[in-house]
Amino acid sequence: MNCVRIIISLALLGVIGRAVRADDSWVVYDSGDGPGKGKHIVLISGDEEYRSEEGLPQLGKILAKEHGFKCTVLFAIDPKDGTINPIVNSNIPGLEVLKSADLMIIATRYRNLPDEQMRFVSDYVESGKPIIGLRTATHAFNLDAKSSFKKYSVDTKGGFGRQVLGETWVNHHGHHGSQSTRGLIAEQVADSPILRGIKSGDIWGPTDVYAVHLPLTNGCTPLVMGQVLKGMKSDDPPVDGKQNDPMMPIAWTRDSHAWDSIAIGRTFTTTMGASQDLESEGLRRLLVNAAYWALKMEDQIPAGGTKVEIVGEYQPTRFGFKGHKTGVKPSDYAMK
Cβ distance 225 to 249 under 8 Å? Predict the structure, then answer.
């Protein structure tokens, strides 16, 4: 009889344990061996166009397997069926894990999160811990008027993008869907640890260059400039004229600074970062190097750059609206 009770109790504990994990609304990659052991990176996806729900799991796998970081990837979840649905812009379960994060990597677009979720983002930002923003993170939030965190909204002085990262959404500089991007190293910062193992031309992606106007007097330092190409292949020639004169920065850092008397920590931003962009070894290395830099571990970036081989199968979906994979759950991105 006692054995039966023990078995029942253990079964109940299993159910309770599973409920605490929110029915697998996110995915965790335990740390492998590497310098990142003991550090926790939280990667937040949630955009309708650039497939961050595909790209961030791959980035998390690389950071965990090859570099020893524990990585948690969060998703826009449809509350009706628990599937990943980036069209749902008001629900990213698991943001409370930011309380234990050492680094936040964010790739959201125009999210309108409720206060009970948004407060974890705000608490993290205002803690002064480092942040990496990808692609649409420049316009990460579009919060309604009743939000307690309206200052993070893109329509409030540029919100999170401009006030934290250094720039908000301006417009497309390259022609969207027909002009791709080649990354050229900014010569004056070629010795940056973030650029170790990367040379001009190593970074390429099918997404176009964004227009960016950085407050250079406010701690922003361009690292990579975006050369607009005539077509959608990595070896296409650059366009002539004003699109490349001057070129727009596609990756930059921002030193610690103040926002409304709040100390903001180190930030790195790139306007690349679609899931297809991550097929570029150069871009993957840029992001992994940036994670080391953000965590003040730049002295551990090898001279030849970090290891960034694709983990498992990776066949990203083409960017664009109304084309995300349906019926996918976070557990489908588990490490295999």
Answer: yes
State which amino acid sits at residue 19.
A
Question: Residue 276 to residues 74, 147, 154: CA-CA distances in angstroms?
Answer: 19, 33, 25
Question: At residue 159, does pLDDT exceed 70?
Answer: yes
Alpha helices in the chain (DSSP H): 2-20, 52-67, 115-125, 159-160, 281-294
Q: How many residues does the chain have?
A: 336
Q: Are 284 and 147 in contact (CB under 8 A)?
A: no
The residue among 85, 131, 129, 132 whose CA lies nearest residue 111 is 85
Residue 22 has pLDDT above 80, yes or no: no
Question: Using CA atoms, how far apart are residues 111 and 144, in angstroms rounded to an integer?
Answer: 10
DSSP state of 309: P
Per the structure block, which two tokens stand in for 167? 């720039």
Cβ neighbours around 281 below 10 Å, total: 17
| pTM for this predicted structure | 0.92
Q: What is the DSSP string of 168-237?
A: ----BSSPTTT--EEEEE-GGGTT-GGGTT--TTSEEESSPPBP----GGGTEEEEEEEEEBSSSSTTPP
Q: Which CATH class is domain 27-170+249-315+324-333?
A: alpha beta
**What tokens were used for 109?**
């677009």
